[in-house]
């Protein structure tokens, strides 16, 4: 074996040995993250059980615990938003969804904006609901349910022409969606 080959072999051996601590360190990180994800999943599942039992305070606490353990528990964000909405806490419901959108900006954002718009609508904050639902339909022009909700928002804001247009758009995307058709009939039968 030549002297040059021996030096190359020594350098490769040193490089491999130098990489071992980094590999071990990363393996420990992966093990810790996996453990966190399992603990977060357990807290989330407990929250789901509480939610099904309509124990919303305990469900909210469990979903918050899941998110504290691991921000990767994405389902806990939406579950927390839904529970907070059921508790009548619009700000907290909206906040959970906004936190999800900030943490994972590449998620299906149109659906998230639609849900925030629904929370705002239920909370009587019609201008904020309109903004969220307009964003939802801009991101997904085929979201017939967002158009339907937008129709309700416009109606409550007194913009009956826009309400009609939104319900008509919902029907053009989903012709079988009878609630939008019913709203248009009601608008025609009892014009404001």
Q: What can you see in these coordinates?
A:
- By secondary structure, the chain is mainly α.
- The chain has a domain at 3-107: Tetratricopeptide repeat domain (Serine Threonine Protein Phosphatase 5, Tetratricopeptide repeat, Alpha Horseshoe).
- Helix content is 83%, strand content 0%.
- The protein is built from nine helices and no strands.
- Helix 4 (90-103) packs antiparallel against helix 5, helix 5 (109-122) packs antiparallel against helix 6 (126-139) and helix 8 runs antiparallel to helix 9.
- The longest helix is centred in the first third of the chain and has 50 residues, at 3-52.
- The model has no long low-confidence stretch (mean pLDDT 87).
What would the keywords be for this entry?
192 residues; mainly alpha; Serine Threonine Protein Phosphatase 5, Tetratricopeptide repeat; 9 helices; 83% helix
CATH topology of the domain at 3-107: Serine Threonine Protein Phosphatase 5, Tetratricopeptide repeat
Which outline best applies? elongated
Gap from first CA to last CA: 96 Å
CATH class of the domain at 3-107: Mainly Alpha
Number of helices: 9
Q: What portion of residues is helical?
A: over 70%
* Largest pleated sheet: none
Name the CATH architecture of the domain at 3-107: Alpha Horseshoe
Record field, number of beta strands: 0
Order of helices and strands: HHHHHHHHH
Low-confidence stretches: none
Relevant CATH superfamily of the domain at 3-107: Tetratricopeptide repeat domain
Query: How confident is the prediction overall: mean pLDDT?
Result: 87
Radius of gyration (Å): 26 Å
Structural class: mainly alpha
Beta-strand percentage range? under 5%
